Amino acid sequence: MSGTDQQDQELQPRPQPLVEDPELPEDEPNHPGWLSIADIMKISDPVFANSKFLIGYHHSSNVYALAGNSLTIVDPGNDYTVFTELQALGYDVRDIKKIVLTHGHRDHCMGVFEFLRYPPVWEAKSVEILIHEAGPQEFQKMLRENGFTATRLKGGETIDLSGFAWEVMHTPGHTMDGICLYHPETKTLISGDTVLPDTVADVDPAGGGDLSHYLHAIKGLLRHEIDHILPGHGVPIADNGHNSIELTYEALMMKIIGVTPDSQTTWMEGAALLAEKGLLDEVVYCCDRELALRPGKPSAMRLKAFALNDMGRCEEAITILDRILAEEGASAQILTAKGHALLGLQQYGNSLPYFDQALEIDPELPEAQVFKGMALTFLGRHEEALRIEAFKREFAARFQQEVDKRKQEQAAATGSTAGPGPAQA
């Protein structure tokens, strides 16, 4: 090798050893070990009286040991010391009857195999592993092949964990198989990575994660009374659970419309971007946040009313539209929206005067023309409806679409490949 070749060889970057997390300090900080859930959460309910919590670190999730008439582990993490430390506290690992996995990521589930290696557990094979049916198939196969029971959850079940009833919520988004566990009596959620303190989990495409699914799952959580959250990472959240879920919801909205926390996007700007994506629940949410800051703001009231109309929440829309009409006077758009809401409530006759008033202000307004034609059609006044040019065009286009659709269905049913038009002899 020449001197130049040798120099070039030495200048090449050398392979670096793989590490778990290059950003972590070399020395692991002192770990607090197992803590009492009842003490740290200030919950006196029997469901947590003897239950324990082990905070996770860089390669392992939080671990929860629910104690009652038996032991249940939720997310055994990825740490072989979990079970030996539990025994040191006076718990017998043979009392662990169930292990629940909030999802199939390694940092949450690999501790299962450490537990199954205990000779008494391996011999008895009596522990039940609960995992969502969409969880890693190889993981489930491995359990079955070794004689262990893998209970496949769908979401919506109520399951007994150590003598207490918990509801299973399917919360896909971070991964396809994400679940949360909800205890209604204490308003407590074991959230896995679905809700985390001060951050939002990344969507993992390899695990079937999807941002729109994530948003939908969080909306479902917002419909429940949740005061306390036991997350998959970080410190548990006491008495502020609903707020943490709302912050997750808002962060996901920002991700969907592509804005960052430092972009200073206003609630109304966010609402407009969400409306372009058809996310009407989120539009209403943003309008409500704006109205909380600036009560009666006309643009927020209008956008909220339009979104409610499109969602079929017509009575709520009418309440807002009536206020706008009283405070600002008539406009073609607001009159049309009021007629649209009445149309949605099947008050066809009552809707017509609003469309007529709107068309007096703006005779070319297509929405008013189309909606008026619809109202006339529902009232059986077909000829009048078809004299409205915009409605006639809309009606004709939809009629043609329906005809084409039926032709395609008939062709599929008969196996025909013939195109439209009469058959040629």
Question: What does this entry look like structurally?
Answer:
This protein is α/β, with parallel strands linked by helices and 425 residues long. It is 47% helix and 13% strand. The strands form two sheets. The chain has a seven-stranded mixed β-sheet with strand order 1-2-3-4-5-6-7. Helix 15 runs antiparallel to helix 16. It is elongated. The chain starts with a helix and ends in an 11-residue tail after the last helix. The model is unreliable at 1-26 and 417-425 (pLDDT under 50).
Strand order of the largest sheet: 1-2-3-4-5-6-7
- The helix content, as a percent range, equals 40-55%
Largest sheet entry: 7 strands, mixed
Q: Unreliable stretches, pLDDT < 50, 5 or more residues?
A: 1-26, 417-425
Please tally the helical runs, counting DSSP H or I stretches of 4 or more residues. Answer: 18
Distance separating the two termini: 82 Å
Q: What is the number of domains? A: 2
CATH class of the largest domain: Alpha Beta
CATH topology of the largest domain: Metallo-beta-lactamase, Chain A
What structural class do the secondary elements suggest?
Answer: alpha/beta
Give the gist of this structure.
This protein has about 425 residues and is an alpha/beta fold. The protein is built from 18 helices and 12 strands. The longest helix has 26 residues, at about 390-415.
